[in-house]
Amino acid sequence: MAKTATPKTYLWCDVCRRSYGHDDAPDALCPVCATPMREMGRLSAIARGFMANELVASDLRTKHRQLVRLIWTRNGMGERYYKVLAPDLPYNRFEARVTELLMRGAEEGWVRFVLPPAPSSDDAAYRVEFDDDERFVREMEAMFASTAAAEG
Ligand SMILES: [Zn+2]
């Protein structure tokens, strides 16, 4: 019998507007933004990928999001927040939601991402700053209070 090692489907992320192989996302969550993805045939995933590339124009937004995520989670900060808040969702979903929150904060002006003028080996040159620490804490609590309540 012929081997059926290659899956015939891909996973599609509506947020990133791109497809992933099953190997990239064993839990069917997008490896970039942790959104649950839907399965689709290989050809339509490729066709959608091509169309989406034209719409999105570049990976910059995705890379920007990854950078934000790397900055706030470094030195184990992501795990530390996760432990304190103990939200009822897997860690990668938590990371994605806090990343969204920080990006909203940056848009609204109460969060600032500080970057060195050129890529640097000094991790401390990359950091997140808050105009209002209390606000970040409040927003985090509000965001994850609902998941805790839903559980109880
Ligand atoms: Zn995604």
Task: Describe the protein in words.
It is a single chain. With 152 residues, this protein is α+β, with helices and mostly antiparallel strands. It has two domains: 9-56, no CATH class; 60-151, no CATH class. The protein contains five helices and five strands. It has helices at 42-56, 60-73, 77-85, 91-108, 133-151, and strands spanning 9-13, 18-20, 38-41, 111-114, 127-130. The chain has a three-stranded antiparallel sheet with strand order 2-1-3, covered by helices on one side. A hairpin with a 4-residue loop joins β1 and β2 (18-20). It is globular.
From the structure above, extract its key features.
three-stranded antiparallel beta sheet; binds zinc ion; two-stranded antiparallel ribbon; 152 residues; single chain
Shape annotation? globular
- Counting DSSP H or I runs of 4 or more residues, the number of helices is 5
Could you give a short account of the major beta sheet? Answer: 3 strands, antiparallel
Distance between the termini: 50 Å
Count of all domains: 2
Structural class: alpha+beta
Mean pLDDT: 82
The count of DSSP E runs of length 2 or more, i.e. the number of strands, is: 5
Helix content: 40-55%
Question: Can you tell me the residue ranges where pLDDT is under 50 for at least 5 consecutive residues?
Answer: none
The radius of gyration over CA amounts to 18 Å
| Ligand kinds | zinc ion
Strand order of the largest sheet: 2-1-3
H/E topology pattern: EEEHHHHEEH
Question: Strand percentage, roughly?
Answer: 5-15%
